[in-house]
Structures are given as C-alpha cells and as structure tokens.
Amino acid sequence: MASRSGNPHLALWIAATGLSHGEIARRLHTTAKARGHRQVAPDATRIRRWIDGERPRPPVPALLADVLSEAVDQPVTPGDLGLTAVGPVLDSIQLPLLTEAAAQTLAGWTQMDFMNRRDTLKLALGAPLILAAEKMLGGTARALNHDRKGFDADTVTALEEVTAFFTKADASKGGALYRSAIVAQLDEVARRIRDGVPPKLKTRVFAATADLAALAGWVSHDAGRYGIAQRLWSYGTYAAGEAGQPDRGVEIVTRMSHQLIYLGHPTDALGLLGVAAQKAALPATKALVASQTGRVHAALGDERAADRHLGAADELLADGLGDDVPEWVAYFDAAEHAGACAVSARDLAGLGHGGRPASTHFEDALKLRKPGFDRVCVMDRVGLAAALFDEGEAEQGAAAAHQALDDAARIDSTLVASRLNTLLDAARPYETVAVDEVRTRAKEIAAARPTTVAA
Questions:
Q1: Structural domain for 337, as ranges
Q2: Has residue 455 been placed in a domain?
C-alpha cells in the first residue's frame, strides 16, 4: 500500500542518479537476474509506485540500494532509501548523505522531540555508532535543490546572529530555558534547506547549521534528553562536512564522546575519539581530541595512557594553537584542558591511582577561566569542593562548597546538578555542622534539576 506522504528519500536518490525510471527498472532487473532473482522484473510504473510510498518486498530493497550505489558512486543502504520495514528509520544514528533527505530526517527527529517521544530515540552505542561517525566525517552530500526560496544572504546572517546569541546564553546560564527555541530554530532550518540552498550561500548555510545543531545537541544533553542530543549532533557533523569544515565535525564528535563518558560508556567514547583523531587537522581540534582521550583513559583506570594523551594536549597548547582558531573551538584553551585534567585526576584517584591532587587542577582551571563561561566555572567550583572532601580537607571543602552552591543556584543545568550529586557523595564521610549545611543546600538545588548520572 502506498504511503500518503510518499517516499521522498527514494525520490531524491533516484533524482541524484539522473536516470529515468525506465532505466532504473532495467538496471534493477539486470542485477536481480545476475543474482538469481528472475522474478524481479519491474517497469517504470512500478518505480513510480515505490516513490509514491508502495513498499517493495525483499530482495528488492537491497538490490535497488546496490543499483543506486553504483549510479551515484557512493554507498547507499535500504535505510537511506526509506525502504526499511517501518519506513525511514528515525531512531537510528544513520543519516542519508543527501542534502534534502538528511534535512527530512532531521525534521523527523525534531518533530519527535516536540512530541516528547524520548523513548523512540534510543542512544546509539557500539559498532553502529562508530561506523556512523566514520561515514559522517568522511563524506559530503550531493545537493539537488538550488532554489533561492530557502535562504538568502540576510536570512543566513540572521541565523548566524541568533545562534551566537543562544551560544552565549547557554554558556552563561545553562541552556534549559532556551532549549525548545533552539530546537525549533533547527527545525525551521531543516525546512528551509529542503526549500533550497543557493550555491553561493552553501558554505555559510551549512556552517551556521552545524553551529546550531551542535548547540541544540548540547542543550538537549544538558536537559537530560540524550537520544535527541546524539541525533542532533550527528546532523551537525553532517552539516559541517557540507560546509567543507571537517574539523568542525571533529569537534562535534568530541561532544558525542563527552556524552558517552557522562553516561558510563567510556569504551564507546574512546571509539569515537579514535575516529576523530584520524580526521583532526587543526592544532586546536588535535589538542581537544587528545585532552578528551586522556580523560576517557582516566575513566577506564589506564593512568599511563591518560598521562600520554593529556601530555600531548599540554604540548600542543604550549606550542600555541595559532592565530586563526575558529570560534566554534575557541572555548578549548588551557582552562578547559585543566578541567579535563581535574576530572581525570579525580577518576584515577577513585580507582586507586596516585598523582597530582584533583583539587589543584580545579584551582588551575578556575584561575584560567575567561568571563562568560559561568556554567563551567560553577562545575569547577563544585568539583573543587568535592575534591577537597575526597582529599580529607573537610573544612576547606565546606568553605569551597558554600561558594559553589551560591553560584549553582543560578544555573539551570542538569550537568551542574550531577556535579552536586558527586559533591554529596564526597561529603558523606563527614558529620559536622558546616558539612551538614552543605548537604542540605546541595540536595535542594539538585532536586530542582533532577539527574541520575555523575559528571
């Protein structure tokens, strides 16, 4: 039975071949016959019915994917063609490498988010996730629609400006308050991409879209919507490739790895970072990947590997990241690396490994932080207080905690709330009036922004 909405994925891929429906049918019949499927003998009318939404039975989807793969000279799967058993797979990490079809998939994800269907967007893990990252970082799409009705120069400028505003607001106050607006903005961008991207504006459109998708993923992660965050980041990685900015995609993949560490999947995080390390070309992204990789090894208890990668980031930072560091990775500096070193030292200490106390790394990070990064400063302050408790400095820990909690109350972030849970764990051995006050205040703030995982 044909679908009311048809199959735009299949229509776009067939259009990308430049072949007539009759020629597609002929090639499909030839391929099927060569593989022993003599009963597969479609005509042009049958191809049109599939585009209209009729779903062919196996082995046709796989055969058609092979025919189109050869015609467009890039791998195409039945899922890319919208020919899976349940239609286009919106809960998969996979994105079709075709501009309008990818935008269509993005629109599906954002609409599912608006309907609060979190359960349909499961977190992708393991080999499928790593392979998807390799595909997204290694390919670009084939743009079909050059109509001007989607974007003009003024529209792109407005998109860049609103993304910059939301990015600053997120870094300062946390993104939960703005999350719905950011995701809605990304949904509008997806609609406009399907309407058309003029060739002269393609780089700017997709660069701005990558920035917006990276931010939308981050605020979704910060709000505890992990599945949608991963999907939005995957689209951001794809958009970065379309913009000719592979290092932008690398930075977004490090965000995906951060999420996996946060959710307790360090091995998968390491797999993503391995892909990112192969693609990183700029000193800043190389340093970011090295720093993040060191942090993952620390979470796994591998002190030697952690020191090696964190040391590599130290060297890159010492050599200088250059005068033309892109804005989207400019946040990674000595302060951000010190924060990664602090969390690494904390994790290693918890696993029985010695080394420099985590509290000194947190102090380094706080001294180096630039204005405007209020949320991460709060996380550093909470981390410092927890580290002091872990190191047996109860009085100093309580004093640091009170200062941290004053700031934490003003930030709307589950990342901050999870750090508060870490603080509560660290304060558990102490029974003093000052520490009891810390516990009471931390519990109140954490309860207002519930989370179940540690950062």
A1: 247-352
A2: no
Q: Which of 224, 247, 274, 213 is nearest to 123 (CA)?
A: 224
Inside any domain, residue 68: yes
- Choosing from 301, 318, 352, the residue where a domain stops is 352
22 located within any domain:
yes
The amino acid at residue 38 is: R
Q: How far apart are CA 214 and CA 209, in angstroms?
A: 8
Q: How far apart are CA 86 and CA 155, in angstroms?
A: 36
For residues 145 and 190, is the Cβ–Cβ distance under 8 A?
no
Q: Is residue 48 part of a domain?
A: yes
Instruction: State how far the Cα of 130 lies from the Cα of 135, in Å rounded to an integer.
Output: 9
Task: Tell me the CATH number at 257.
Answer: 1.25.40
Is the backbone peptide bond immediately before 59 cis, with ω within 30 degrees of 0? Answer: yes
User: Which amino acid type is present at position 99?
Assistant: T
CA 329 to chain centroid, in Å, comes to: 14
- Find the helix packing angle between 394-408 and 374-390, rounded to 10°: 160
Give the DSSP H/E element, type plus range, for residue 327: none
Domain count of the fold of the chain: 2
Give mean pLDDT in consecutive 10-residue pieces for the chain, a chain of 455 residues. Answer: 63 84 94 88 92 86 88 77 55 66 79 62 80 79 73 93 91 80 92 89 95 95 89 93 94 96 92 95 97 96 95 96 91 95 92 86 94 90 95 94 89 85 92 92 80 43
E-only strand ranges, 267-415: none
Q: Which of 89, 124, 159 is the last residue of a domain?
A: 89
SS (H, E, C) 39-65: CCCCCHHHHHHHHCCCCCCCCHHHHHH
End-to-end CA distance of the chain: 48
Q: Which two tokens stand for residue 122?
A: 């499961």
